[in-house]
Amino acid sequence: MTAVGALIVSLLTLTLCGCATLPPNRCESQERVVVNDMLYFGTATAHGVVSRQQWNEFVNTVVTPRFPMGLTVWPASGQWQSADGHIIHEVSHVLALVHADDPGSDLAVLTIVSTYKTEFDQEAVLRVRSAACASP
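The structure corresponding to this sequence follows.
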């Protein structure tokens, strides 16, 4: 490989590695860095649909005890591709959790996802995790 080729490969490698991680958030002085987790819950099951009452009970008994400081939930209409390749359209719920970036909070989110998948026979719950700045 020529010196120019090696230089190009090195620069390309550095560029791609730089894209692998997000730069740290630069929050204003009155803000703090937090995690914003967006969880997407489908309601179609092999035995029917997760009812509004079942969803509310899940939020009250599984989610709220793990995030008593607050959360936001809203209804949605979603679609996704199942493992067998079918496109599934279903009523969904979106749950937004803003929390500290610590192992306890991460475990709480993973527990919520796992419990929903088990309790309602779900193939997946989508989790989108991002850093954010929060102000009081």
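Residues 28-134 form a domain with the Alpha-Beta Plaits fold (CATH 3.30.70.120).
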